[in-house]
Amino acid sequence: MIDIRQLQVFLAVWEHRSFSKAAKAIYLTQPTVSGHIKTLEDFLGVRLFDRAGRNVLPTKAGEILYPYARRMMELSEEIVTEINIFKGADSGTVHLAGSNIPGQYILPGLIGEFKRKKPKIEVELRIGDSQAVTEMVEARKIDMGMVGAVFDAEHLAFQPTFRDQLVLIAHPGEPLSHGDSVELEKLPKLPFIFRERGSGTRLVTERALKKGANLELSSLNIVAEMGSTEAVKQAVKAGIGCAIVSERAVRDEVEHGLLRRYYIEGLGLERLFFLVWDRQRTLSPTCLALQEFILNKAKEEGNKTNGI
Fold it and tell me: Which residue in 24, 94, 126, 152 has the most C-beta neighbors within 10 A?
């Protein structure tokens, strides 16, 4: 196998056209330089330099080797640079994904704040449903994800972060009650719009209905299924039906009277978002820096909510 030190010596002799000058340039003795070149020539089975007195000229074989040797030395330098960046946690790229709610309403603001602290770190954000994000983490297509439900995956860590309240929304022109809550018994009579299968919102709703009211999702009148929370909101605004969504996603619309928000009596629809990563994977310092930042922000929000 070719030693990287042999290539360094070869390049020094090539550039200086002299064994003695090459030796001085790379802080070796001339016999050591000669020894490295001979070992390389013996390994390749060709002569790399013609020596005629003080003149040292590359052979045709030397000319063939030169660009490869140069490329290997450049790659070696890149490796050292990238590893130093990795160790420093001040630059690099983190591949992140979020399910619809955290991906649209939580992570963009966190990334912006994180970037102000560490401007050289790039964060690439992808959005999918909770199941898809979890599968991306499993396949190592991303470094971390934030999802609205925990899935059965032995080697994945699901760390609780931000709390979220699910609420019932309806068109403001079709009030479901006079107050801000709706009785549980009314749900089977209402036309519902739901997210697609794999959505954390749908999964949490399904579990809450089963636990709190012994209701199957199939017992509800589902008139449409949508691929995103934004699509669900637009369908509710159009009067197609009502929906159960994250309160975070409808704050502006409720405030401006575009949607009406209700709480469902007797049904616990509070959930957590989870930061998910692969326990068996060594995360880079840049990734760990973002992970720590997100977890600290979640803790701060939790303290405010609890009045601490």
Answer: 94
Q: Are residues 261 and 289 in the same domain?
A: no
* 181 and 248 assigned to the same domain: yes
The residues, any chain, with a CB within 8 Å of residue 12's CB and separated by 6 or more, are 22, 23, 25, 26, 33
pTM: 0.65
3-state helix, strand, coil in the chain (%, to 5): 50, 25, 25
Could you tell me if 173 and 240 are in contact, meaning their C-beta atoms sit under 8 angstroms apart? no
Q: Are 288 and 296 in contact (CB under 8 A)?
A: no
pLDDT tens-digit series, residues 237-282: 999 999 999 999 999 999 999 999 999 998 888 889 999 999 988 8
For 84-97, letters b (16+ CB in 10 Å) and e give ebeeebeebebbbb
142 and 156 Cβ atoms separated by less than 8 Å: no
Domain boundary among 71, 87, 103: 87
Q: Is residue 156 one of the residues assigned to a domain?
A: no
DSSP secondary structure letters along 273-307: EEEEEETTS---HHHHHHHHHHHHHHHHHHHHHTT
Taking the C-alpha atoms of residue 7 and residue 248, their distance in angstroms, rounded to an integer, is 59
Amino acid at site 188: P
Task: Provide the domain count of the chain.
Answer: 3
Q: What is the rounded average pLDDT for all residues in the chain? A: 89
Chain position carrying tokens 């050289």: 120
Distance CA 23, CA 34 (A): 9
For residue 285, the enclosing domain spans 92-151+279-305
